[in-house]
């Protein structure tokens, strides 16, 4: 480990912020960053008071992908270790019970783009460049990109983007359904993400988690199974105090206060 804090977590009210913090390397992901990222994600997972998570990058980019300088020094087994690690960490991010939002600016390339694809929502600054550029390095997207991008944009566009390794700008990424929204610059994209996170945090937290669970689990199953997952997720909400609080608040013409109980 180095003295540098390669990934930083802080919290504001019910929202966790995870900042990639290797700006001198455009937040490229080395093995240490992946390990710290994984630890922080697992700390967030068990926190009932955290209701949304915002990921962003320090400096002039979100993330330029795998650390190519480190990669050059690795044996094939160490490369396998890194690929397994990145895949596991991104799956842990995807499976976080809290909604996740990525704020993208500068570059979101390779593993950096794949990290954002593991998040639920993506807001980008106008001039951000996106690309699953791995085939230009004689590898393929190995951190979920071939699967998650395809589910978002369909196989034709996923193939075009991955085969050509092209970098696209925010406007096309928005058009393709990769982005939830585009803002003028990093600050406004982050502000937008925080506004969305705060809005989410005001809703019933158990309901939001159950909704995320039902959507994620239902994506890869047939409709009948998906409807059964939804029904079970709903069932868990019936005995909650928050559900009764919502009904009381409606009757009393006030805003509900949800405690996550
Ligand atoms: N790894 C390490 N260092 C990097 C990386 C990187 N990916 N990207 C940028 N840097 C460093 C540069 O070397 C430079 O450092 P220094 O000043 O010490 O030389 C600093 O960041 C700033 O970069 P540039 O001067 O190059 O900045 P530019 O604005 O001129 O260019 C680019 C920005 C276009 C993003 C350019 O830096 C670039 O092409 N970077 C490489 C992008 C890339 O190919 N990423 C890898 C994609 S493949 C991948 O992510 C595979 C993931 C799959 C699983 C991985 C398991 C771990």
Automatic annotation (TrEMBL):
For the biological process aspect of GO, one term held by this record is: fatty acid beta-oxidation
Q: Which domain of life is it from?
A: Bacteria
Under SUPFAM superfamilies, the record lists: ClpP/crotonase
In terms of Pfam families, this protein maps to: ECH_1
Q: Which GO terms describe its molecular function?
A: hydro-lyase activity
Asked if the Swiss-Prot or TrEMBL record annotates the protein with the keyword Membrane, the reply is no
Is Lyase given among the entry's keywords? yes
UniProt keywords, alphabetically: Lyase
> What PANTHER family does the annotation carry?
ENOYL-COA HYDRATASE, MITOCHONDRIAL, ENOYL-COA HYDRATASE-RELATED
Q: Which family does it belong to?
A: Belongs to the enoyl-CoA hydratase/isomerase family.
Spell out the protein name for this chain.
Enoyl-CoA hydratase-related protein
- Recorded source organism is Alicyclobacillus acidoterrestris (strain ATCC 49025 / DSM 3922 / CIP 106132 / NCIMB 13137 / GD3B)
* Highest classification ranks of the organism: Bacteria, Bacillati, Bacillota, Bacilli, Bacillales
């Amino acid at each position: 480990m180095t003295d540098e804090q390669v990934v930083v977590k802080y919290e504001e009210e019910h929202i966790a912020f995870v900042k990639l913090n290797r700006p001198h390397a455009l937040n490229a992901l080395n093995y240490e960053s992946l390990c710290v990222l994984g630890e922080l994600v697992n700390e967030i997972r068990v926190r009932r008071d955290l209701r949304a998570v915002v990921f962003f990058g320090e400096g002039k980019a979100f993330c330029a992908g795998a650390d190519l300088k480190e990669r050059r020094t690795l044996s094939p087994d160490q490369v396998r270790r890194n690929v397994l690690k990145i895949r596991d960490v991104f799956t842990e991010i995807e499976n976080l019970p809290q909604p996740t939002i990525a704020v993208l600016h500068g570059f979101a390339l390779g593993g950096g783009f794949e990290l954002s694809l593991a998040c639920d929502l993506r807001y980008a600054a106008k001039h951000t460049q996106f690309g699953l550029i791995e085939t230009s390095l004689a590898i393929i997207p190995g951190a979920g990109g071939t699967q998650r991008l395809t589910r978002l944009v369909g196989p034709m566009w996923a193939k075009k983007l991955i085969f050509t390794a092209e970098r696209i700008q925010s406007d096309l990424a928005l058009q393709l359904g990769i982005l939830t929204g585009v803002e003028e610059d990093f600050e406004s994209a982050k502000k937008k993400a925080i506004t969305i996170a705060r809005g989410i945090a005001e809703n019933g937290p158990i309901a939001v988690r159950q909704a995320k669970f039902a959507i994620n689990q239902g994506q890869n199953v047939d409709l009948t199974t998906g409807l059964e997952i939804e029904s079970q997720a709903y069932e868990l909400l019936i005995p909650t105090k928050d559900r009764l609080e919502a009904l009381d608040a409606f009757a009393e013409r006030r805003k509900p206060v949800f405690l996550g109980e």
